[in-house]
Amino acid sequence: MAVELDVFVGNTTIMDEEVYQLWLDGYTVNDAVKVRMEGGVLEEFEASADVLLSDTMDQYRTFQMCERLLHSPAKLANQLLFQIPPHRQAILIERYYAFDDAFVREVLGKKLSKGTKKDLDDISAKTSVTLKSCRRQFDNFKRVFKVVEELKGPLVENIRQHFLLSDKLARDYAAIVFFANNRFETGKRKLQYLTFQDFAFCAGQLINSWTIGAVDNMVEDMDVDLDKEFLQELKELKILITDKDLLDQHKSLVCTALRGKTKAFNEMEANFKNLSRGLVNIAAKLTNTKDVRDFFIDLVEKFIEPCRSDRWTASDMRLYLTHYTNSAHILDTFKHQVVWDRYMGVIKSCIFKMYHD
Amino acid sequence: MPGKLKAKIVAGRHLPVMDRASDLTDAFVEVKFGNTTFKTDVCPKSLNPQWNSEWFKFEVDDEDLQDEPLQITVLDHDTYSANDAIGKVYIDIDPLLCSEAASVISGWFPIYDTIHGIRGEINVLVKVELFNDLNRFRQSSCGVKFFCTTSIPRCYRAAMVHGFVEELVVNEDPEYQWIDRIRTPRASNEARQRLISLMSGELQRKIGLKVLEMGGNAVVGYLQCFDLEGESGLVVRAIGTACTLDKLSSGSAPNTNTHVHPNTAPASNACNSPSKDGKEPVFGEDLPSFSGPPTPFRALPTSSSSPPPFSPSKPCSRQSSSSDTDLSLTPKTGMGSGGSAGKEAGPLKTLLRQQTQTALEQREFPFFTLTSFPPGFLVHVGGVVSARSVKLLDRIHNPDEPETRDAWWEEIRQEIKSHAKALGCHAVVGYSESTSICEEVCILSASGTAAILNPRYMREGCLDIGSTDHRFEEPSPPSCGFCHIPYDELNMPFPAQLTYCYHCRRQKVPDVLFTTIDMPPEAAVTGKGCLIQARLCRLKKKAQGEVNATAISNLLPFMEYELHTQLMNKLKLRSMNALFGLHIQISVGENMLLGLASATGVYLTALPAPGGIQIAGKTPGDLSNEHHILTIQKRINDTITKNKELYQINPPKLFALDPEVFGGINMELTEEVVGSPIPEPRQRSRLFRSHSESSDELSELDLSHGKKDAFVLEIDDTDAVEDIHSLLTDAPPPTGFYSCNTEIMPGIYNWTTGVQMFTSVRVFRLSNANLTNQGLNKIFTDLCENLLKSFYFKLRSMIPCCLCHLNFTVAVPEEELIQVAVTAVAMTFDKDQTQEKPADKPVTKGCSETEEQLQFPLELCADSSSITTQTSSKISGVPESTNVSPRAASVDYGSFADRCSTWLELLRLKAHTIRRGSVKTSRRTQSLAHSVSSLERSSPLPEGRSRSLRSNRSFGGSSVPVVKMTPLSFLPGTRIIKYLGIINMFFIRETTSLREEGGVSGFLHSFIAEVFAMVRAHVAALGGNAVVSYSMKECVLMENPNKNQAQCLINVSGDAVICVIETDQESMPSTINVVQTCSSGADGAT
């Protein structure tokens, strides 16, 4: 008893979404058959294990043949080999480019190089995502990175059009590309509590406000590189902490506004100078690439951790930052309102997002 | 210079990287036709080159236009070394030669390489300008249309059916020429592909010439096959049915045939009289020439027609339709021993079938490759006729005179013809031919269904089928006519058991009917049909030459016998009485023969109810054995009951009838029986005799089934036990699934638009060298059953659905390998309606017809013979058939018991079928009238519609147009508005990196997907959106895993069509065109 050859080819390509997921997740054919059996397809349909094996093999082969096309999804729509209805094509692509949060958290901000690829088995062991699936996800990141690197125009839009992804997924990829390009440190222990979605949100903020693209939308890499001029201008903000008068004035304005509105008022008043120094120093240092990489760890160390130890609530944080930002406008000697807004707008929303357990 | 071919190369895309250094390609294109070649410029460094070439013009004979394909080769330019070929596209330009088909070929074609598969795509434009040719001695046959479809294509009507055309051409196989030793595999494959393309072109042209000679303009049911005879050559042969087709204006065209898948309940019009009041009374004048069913056809033949074809020396030979007589060897001379049957049957002449006879006898072979017919065409069906012959191949010395092969087929056809005559039939329908080759041995097979046809369709000048089909409907015996025996009942060619038709009760019908055709659409069926397969393996000793051929010849009759027995048993087990679409394939390997018979079983309401199956022990008295028998018997009975439920076969329920009607009909029955030429007493005596012969359980059996007949199986050895087990192992399809091998599933009418065509191939390696026949049988049966199970599982998302046209092909590619290839289509249907239907049918009929019946019984009794056919059709129906069953039961009993006693007789029985027509007849008439009116409404737009479809497609941006494929002649829910030409493609794929391509499965998987892609691309380029009557004729796989090599040849064919979504014509007649355009556009764009 040996089936030497067993194929089934439909004019419309038959694809089972469950099997596709198993394939994407890196299951071997035999493991996939086991999973399917446990899933109860058999009882539902009085089929034998042989039938399931044969079906799984067929589908795996189909997916393997499709994989080449999925690498440049636009091809999937005008290739002739497989007749796949458009909505199915969309599902295939979306799922192929989907990733595990646990995995992406591990490689976020790392260089998408061969070196990282070699570490994938460790990551696989740590995240219990199969190595095969890790490779696929990593290669997807790399592929998207390579393609958009050379393109002009908005990053998210480029990814969406080139890889035919949904808006949400395209934004996530934009974040991944952005992080990989700027090599933000995300792996430190203190940052472990942050999810990929936290970072993706922050990336979105940075892309929207701090990159060259925010001012000029026809340059290459407009959305992946931070606006150098802006970073330079940020140094000017130092006056807020170096000028003693300005600092005091700022503090009193904020405290007046906050008084009686929060239980944490005393801590806020006591820590104002520290916190303000923290934020402004982060701004002033961003011209150094090294400090850009440490942007998130600095935010956590210099601002989020002190606040957390003082048991600020999320609304305390909101209140404080709003007034902190707005009060600077009233300072008559402070001339850098535009830069300040551009800086604080991002900082505010990032901190709001990152301020959780 | 009667033709100018123009080609333009537009662009390429997705080309492979040919230059490793730059990761790019410098592509250019060679366009070749005949001996003329043009080249485009090189488009440097691009994987998506834009050539936008000038128009390349070829001035050629139309003969060449028919034979030659346009050959497009994409190459990578290399300054220093030879240019590398990327791949090729062969475009068959035949569709452009026919004014009614496509006018331009334009689209993306996959660039195909026999080693690498598809490598990118190329956009090409092709046009043909034909000049009028007045040369009467011309060699071309441009303009003759070819259809793979085995029925009259949907937008045509048959003005005349001329009959059988056949041709074969032979050549040396390039793979076996000396030059093959020194050329690359690629060159060799391409030489072969090109040769076969040329040969099929030539073949088609020659057949076209024959058609023109006969005065026809089309070939329907065109069946082309390749015989790869290895060393001795390559044969391409084709058969078909020549017709004169008239194009209906496309607005209404398809309606002539839409009755095949009607959406209206068949029962609803049951009591309408079959449209005597018809819209076109004019046609009444044609009636006289057609002799109604009753008298003339019953006349006796003068000479004895007792079964001469069976020589007594061969007790195991089958019915006249089997071919044991011609299993002779024809070694070198090519002279067969000829069918003794043919000679004996020759002098047979029936007296009174003058018109038909003369019409048909002018033809050498009154054969028709059609499997479904215009209404009224088929008068009676006799049964399956088949012939096989074993030949030894030798080199074809002179390819221009392929006399040997011609002679072989001639012989077989003669035999078929004589078999048909023995069945009292003058024609053979559903005719097909096939071969199985292993080394130098070749089995030639032909089969068909003996039938009597309405001569009208074969004579000039009196035909107008398309618009007037109901005219023939009327005089012909309503729906059951085709099941009435064509032969004389006193001199039957084989001892079949006859009863009066359960539908019209005027003519005799057999108890079982086997046919190779599709079920006539108007046939009345009880319940649903199902796929029935008989599978068989027989070991044989390895041998050479004549010894081998003799061994095979000797095995064949036994195989046919067993296949037939299996079919019969399985049919009974499902409580059915007729088989349609019967196809028996016998494949030869080095050390075994495989037999696979597939058919669709149904319960024809016009035929008697089948009996059960009874098990009998050979040695009574053995208690344990008897117990065993009892258990098996019980299992069988249970299975029968289960199957009846499953297939909704429940005629007994109709016993609950108005007693008055019951009585009336009974009276009629008695009279008929008394007057019948088969006297009842004789039946009785037979019945008693057989009763005494069979075991005591018989009575039990009868009670459990409520039937009086039984089919006895004797268990005398382990073989028999095995057989019975295998009988019971066939698993029914899971809930929600039905399967059949015919065009449509009897009993399902409400198809929805879900369609999934698929091809599946399995190869099984027999590991055990010491296999027994039983072991092999089991393996083979499991292989087939598992395949079916796989299909059900894979297609589970389509439930409720039916697998239609399940076409199994078996082969023994190597010793110890069994290959099964299946092509079929899964179609969804509306479950709710189906459930309604069976219930609906009897009920409506019950109430509407009972009334009428109440009025008629007395009349019937008084003078049953004088009643017009029309009345008989009126009273026909389910209630009637139930009434008959008591009587029929007794008759049947006799028949079966009798048959059991002599297996030989059983063998000789070939079956017959019945349909109940009155119901659907009237419905069809309606739809016809309907179609006429819709024609008027929608006629102005035939061209416009297709154009808009096309433009929609091209504006659809980059997305690829959807091309649906189906082995059926239609797509449910759509109407075919145009046939664009035949698709007949041959591909070879070879690999020297089998492991890297995923083993032999991966290799074949991608090849089949590539073949589909190429078919779709060609259809789309012709402007079509579907392929109908698709089939994979050949799938030859050779592998050598040790050398990491494999090669595969695939031949596919079908008809490219444009179809539009069928809208409800009643509700929106004026907007219909708009709607269809939109929907088709949408369809094309998706």
From TrEMBL, chain A:
What Gene Ontology molecular-function terms does this entry list? Answer: fibroblast growth factor binding
Determine the domain of life of the protein's source: Eukaryota
One annotated Gene Ontology cellular component of this protein = nucleus
What's an example Gene Ontology biological process for this entry?
platelet aggregation
The membrane spanning regions, by residue number, are none
Q: Which Pfam families match?
A: FIBP
* Protein known as: Fibroblast growth factor (acidic) intracellular binding protein A
Organism of derivation: Lates calcarifer (Barramundi)
Q: From which lineage does this chain's organism come?
A: Eukaryota, Metazoa, Chordata, Craniata, Vertebrata
Supply the gene name.
Answer: FIBP
Automatic annotation (TrEMBL), chain B:
Where mainly found?
Answer: membrane
Q: Where in the cell is it found?
A: Cell membrane; Cell projection, Ruffle; Cytoplasm, Cell cortex; Cytoplasmic vesicle membrane
Q: Compositional bias (Polar residues) spans?
A: 250-275, 924-937
Q: Which SMART domains match?
A: C2
Query: Where are the stretches annotated Disordered?
Result: 250-345, 918-956
Q: Where is the composition biased (Low complexity)?
A: 313-330
Work out whether the entry's keyword set contains Transmembrane helix: no
Per the record, its GO cellular-component terms are: cell cortex; cytoplasmic vesicle membrane; plasma membrane; ruffle
> In its UniProt record, which GO terms are filed under biological process?
insulin receptor signaling pathway; intracellular protein transmembrane transport; positive regulation of D-glucose transmembrane transport; positive regulation of protein targeting to membrane; positive regulation of vesicle fusion; protein localization to plasma membrane
Question: Keywords for this entry?
Answer: Calcium, Cell membrane, Cell projection, Cytoplasm, Cytoplasmic vesicle, Lipid-binding, Membrane, Metal-binding, Protein transport, Transport
* Record's protein name: C2 domain-containing protein 5
User: Origin organism of this chain?
Assistant: Lates calcarifer (Barramundi)
Q: Which gene encodes it?
A: c2cd5
